[in-house]
Structure formats: structure tokens, C-alpha cells
Design brief:
The structure holds 2 protein chains of 2 kinds.
Chain A (H helix, E strand, L loop, with lengths): L1 H16 L5 E7 L2 E4 L5 E3 L5 E2 L4 E4 L4 E6 L2 E5 L4 E9 L2 E17 L8 E3 L4 E4 L3 E6 L5 E7 L2 E5 L2 E5 L3 E5 L9 E2 L7 H14 L1 H47 L1 H51 L7 H20 L10
Parallel strand pairs in A: 9-10
Antiparallel strand pairs in A: 1-4, 1-6, 2-3, 2-5, 5-8, 6-7, 7-9, 8-9, 9-12, 10-11, 11-14, 12-13, 13-16, 14-15, 16-17
Helix pairs in contact in A: 1-4, 2-3, 3-4, 3-5, 4-5
Chain B lengths: L1 H28 L3 H7 E7 L2 E3 L2 H13 L8 E7 L5 H4 L3 H10 L5 E6 L5 E9 L2 E8 L3
Parallel strand pairs in B: 1-6
Antiparallel strand pairs in B: 1-2, 3-4, 4-5, 5-6
Helix pairs in contact in B: 2-3
The chains are: A alpha+beta, B alpha+beta.
């Protein structure tokens, strides 16, 4: 059942993916690899093309640069970046997802259909040309704008940033107050180190934020899944009706029925499938790059103190989070996502 | 004759497994986190977690060494070829099952060891020319 649903989502998305905007790899240095949406891994090389669902990962000494139809994406070391898509307001948008690390974006031209930028805690819509997104160890986000304007949204609240302004978005919370930031002033390593230290010194607080954010994704996935199934069932019914109309009323009537009834249903079902997929992968990103890393770092810290209260309390929350993830999100993932 | 060949193969494999365990244990006991990181591949498995960044694997080894963890007197309880069901020894989840399918190549071994204090650990290792690569870790449990 699980694979049938995931398969159906992929089939529906297939047609939409054809219109997705790929990104060309224009520069790489050091450790940089791409995991394709089919799960295959390869070293990133100049001339490679990233499509929806592909992930580029850099190591400590790695860097990469992409061009997505006029958007220049400069990926720093220790960064995980995925090209995604979602439907919003009736149209499909490219989503440049920064799971971890830092990326500088330069929009050569503003056309009104710029890709969104997402992290574990925020979504940014650019109406400007130059900004940097930092995605921290604790899932928080820092966005600094060099030129133009960027709207940053989280938990239903948004803040507009102009040039030389920045904002931090803690995981599972709305954006904070914006502040002044000069070009290239943010030291990502120091900022991220501070986030990691804070997370490790109070892992329960970190887990609370992770749980809040994960609950949001789980709700989105449940909502999209229910609607997706409902629309898919309706679509199947209408397709059967279409066959009856072809047989009983002829091709002309069937064409009219198809364009007025079936095609809108295909579009709606496809959009729901796309968003179901987007939310599932966003949840996986949170689970892998925030919760999972926290587990690994804490495990190492408490490996000789397995009865320490901090560790055992953390484990209780962590195991609950994983149980929820296994039930709510995993049925919507496929092996290639792992 | 066939029984002799089989026995010598098993003995050779046991020796190989012991060698791999000894190498990892010696490095852990000597606090050689950097060497352990250099031997490790990504993706890397820690219990039920898939670690994708080499820097995080290095931080894990560095962390356990700094925490004073040791594999004193580690002895090999069992060594077996990593197979379809090996994931259950680490975590019975779709992610870990997929990790074994996708990232644990043919020839990898799952080693179970017990330290002198009774702590048990699991290692996933694979021979790589004349050295060993570490693919995963579980424990102590």
C-alpha cells in the first residue's frame, strides 16, 4: 500500500517535473558530490545538471557553484542543498532547500517567479538580488541580505528584509527581530558553533523545538495525504466516466468533459502529490540534519555516562520523535530518499 | 579435503575479523580519533542514525575519545557477512534497512565484540586493499 501511494505520487509528479527548472553545476572544488533523486551518487563536476530531487553535498574543503536560469547559487563547505518543488497559490515553484550549511544566492534578474529558498525553520521569497542563507546545527536559520529585498516566513509570520538587514529564525518559531548586517560580516562557523554548543548544553530545549517543527510537518503530510487520496479517488472515478462518455456520447463530448472536469482534477491531484512529497522530504531533512546530528553528538558526549539524566531524558524524547516519524513520514518516503 | 579447505577459510576469516577489531580497538584506546575518522566512510551508521557528513563522523570519533571511552580487552564474539537481515542488529527501521541495501557493499562484515567491562559493540567494516574501512558503529549496549 505504502509503495503504491509513493509510486502514485511519483507518477503524478512525473509530468510536472518535466517543466521544473534544472540547475547547472558551473564550478566545484574539493569534496562535492551529488545524490540523484534515484539514489545514485556521483562526484559533482562542472557541466553536471541537477534536477528536482537531486542533492548536492560539500565536505569541509568543498565548494560548488550552480546556475539555475540566472540564479547563481554559491555553496560553501559542509553544506547540504536540495533542489525541490512545491505548489503554492496555484503555481509550481522551485524550492532551493538548504538543509545544513551556508549558501549565497545571486538573482541576476527579478522576473516575479523566483524560486523560494527553504531551510529547516524558514521559507524565504526573494525580490532582491543578493542574500546569504545560513542553516544551523540546531535547525535555526540566519538570512543576511546584501542587495534587494527578501521576505522571510516561518510559523505563519513574516518579516521583510532590505539591503544590509538580517534576521534569525529559531526552529519551530516565527522570525526574530531584524538587525543590521554588513556584507560578508557574518561568520557562519562561529554562529553555527554557538548554535551547536547551545543545543548540546540544553538538548531537551533543542528537542522541544524539533518536536514542534516535526509536528508541523506531520500535520502537513497528514493533510496533504488525505486530500491527495480523496482527489485521486475522484480522478479515477472521473476517468472511468470519461470512458463511458466516449462510448456513449462520442469524442467531442468526451474532449469537453476531459478539459472541464478531468484535467483540472489532474492538476489539483498533481499539486497535492507535489506538496505531500515536499513536506515528507522536509521532515526527513529535519530528522536527519537536526535530530540525527544531535543524537550522534550527544551519544559521543555521554557514551561513558549512559545513565546520565540529560542523556536518558533526551533519549525518551528522541525515541518518541522517531516513532512518530516512522508512522507519519516514512510511509511517504522511498529508498532513494535515504 | 573439502572440510579442510572450509575450515581453513573460516579460520582465515576469523583472523581477518579479529585483525579489524583489534585495529579499531587499538585506535580507540590510543585516542586516535583522526585515524578512526580517516578509516571511516560516509554515509556512516551510528546506532540507527545515518551520518552523511565526514566532519560529523570525525566529530563522533573525537567525541567518544574525549569522553574517555575505551574498548579495553575487546574480544570478538562473532563476525558475519553483512546481509539482508543485518540491519535489525542496529535498528529495525526503513532507514537502516535501506542503509544496508544501498551503502553496505558486498564483502562487508558485521563484528560483535565485548569489552573487559562487559560492554558490547557492533562494527560494520570492509576490507579495502590492505586496510579496513569502518562503515558503522553501534554501542555500547
Amino acid at each position: 500500500m505504502k509503495s503504491a501511494i509513493a509510486g502514485a505520487v511519483f507518477l503524478l509528479i512525473g509530468a510536472m517535473a518535466l517543466s521544473a527548472v534544472p540547475a547547472d553545476v558551473t564550478y566545484t572544488e574539493g569534496d562535492a558530490s551529488i545524490r540523484l533523486s534515484n539514489g545514485r551518487q556521483q562526484d559533482a563536476q562542472i557541466g553536471d545538471v541537477m534536477n528536482t530531487g537531486d542533492t548536492l553535498k560539500t565536505g569541509r574543503d568543498g565548494q560548488a557553484e550552480l546556475d539555475q536560469k540566472g540564479v547563481t547559487i554559491k555553496i560553501a563547505g559542509n553544506t547540504v542543498f536540495t533542489l525541490m518543488e512545491r505548489e503554492q497559490g496555484g503555481k509550481t515553484s522551485s524550492v532551493l532547500a538548504v538543509a545544513l550549511g551556508s549558501i549565497k544566492f545571486h538573482y541576476g534578474k527579478i522576473t516575479g517567479s523566483e524560486p523560494l529558498v527553504s531551510t529547516n525553520s524558514a521559507v524565504a521569497g526573494a525580490r532582491g538580488t543578493d542574500f546569504t542563507v545560513f542553516s544551523g546545527a540546531d535547525g535555526s536559520t540566519l538570512i543576511a541580505v546584501d542587495a534587494g529585498e527578501v521576505t522571510v516566513e516561518s510559523q505563519g509570520q513574516s518579516v521583510d528584509l532590505a539591503a544590509n538587514e538580517g534576521v534569525e529564525v529559531p526552529l519551530g518559531r516565527p522570525p526574530g527581530d531584524k538587525f543590521t548586517v554588513q556584507r560578508n560580516q557574518v561568520d557562519y562557523s562561529a554562529w553555527n558553533e554557538g548554535k551547536l554548543d547551545a543545543m548540546l548544553s540544553d538538548p531537551l530545549a533543542a528537542m522541544t523545538s524539533i518536536e514542534t517543527a516535526m509536528a508541523g510537518y506531520e500535520k502537513d503530510v497528514a493533510d496533504y495525504d488525505a486530500l491527495f487520496k480523496q482527489y485521486r479517488a475522484q480522478l479515477n472515478t472521473e476517468r472511468a466516466n470519461l470512458v463511458t462518455i466516449i462510448n456513449q456520447k462520442g469524442k467531442e463530448e468526451a474532449n469537453k468533459y476531459e478539459s472541464e472536469v478531468v484535467t483540472p482534477l489532474v492538476v489539483k491531484t498533481t499539486a497535492l502529490g507535489l506538496n505531500l512529497r515536499y513536506s515528507s522530504l522536509a521532515a526527513l531533512s529535519l530528522r536527519r540534519f537536526v535530530a540525527g546530528r544531535l543524537y550522534v553528538f550527544l551519544k559521543a558526549r555521554y557514551i561513558t555516562q549512559p545513565s546520565a539524566e540529560t542523556w536518558t531524558s533526551f533519549l525518551t524524547h528522541y525515541n518518541e520523535l522517531l516513532a512518530g516519524f516512522e508512522t507519519s513520514i516514512v510511509p511517504h518516503l522511498v529508498e532513494a530518499d535515504i | 579435503m573439502a572440510a579442510v579447505v572450509l575450515a581453513s577459510c573460516a579460520s582465515f576469516q576469523h583472523g581477518q575479523d579479529q585483525g579489524a577489531l583489534r585495529q579499531v580497538a587499538d585506535l580507540v584506546n590510543a585516542g586516535q580519533a583522526q585515524k578512526l575518522a580517516a578509516m571511516s566512510v560516509v554515509p556512516f551508521l551510528v546506532d540507527g542514525e545515518i551520518v552523511l557528513l565526514q566532519a560529523d563522523v570525525a566529530a563522533f570519533w573525537d567525541g567518544i575519545v574525549k569522553a574517555g571511552f575505551r574498548l579495553e580487552g575487546a574480544t570478538l564474539d562473532q563476525g558475519a557477512a553483512a546481509g539482508a537481515g543485518s540491519f535489525r542488529q542496529f535498528a529495525d527501521t526503513m532507514e537502516v534497512r535501506t542503509f544496508f541495501i544501498r551503502y553496505v557493499k558486498k564483502g562487508a562484515r558485521v563484528l560483535q565484540a565485548t569489552t573487559s567491562t562487559g560492554a558490547r559493540v557492533l562494527l560494520i567494516v570492509k576490507s579495502d586493499w590492505f586496510s579496513w574501512k569502518i562503515i558503522g558503529w553501534k554501542g555500547p549496549y
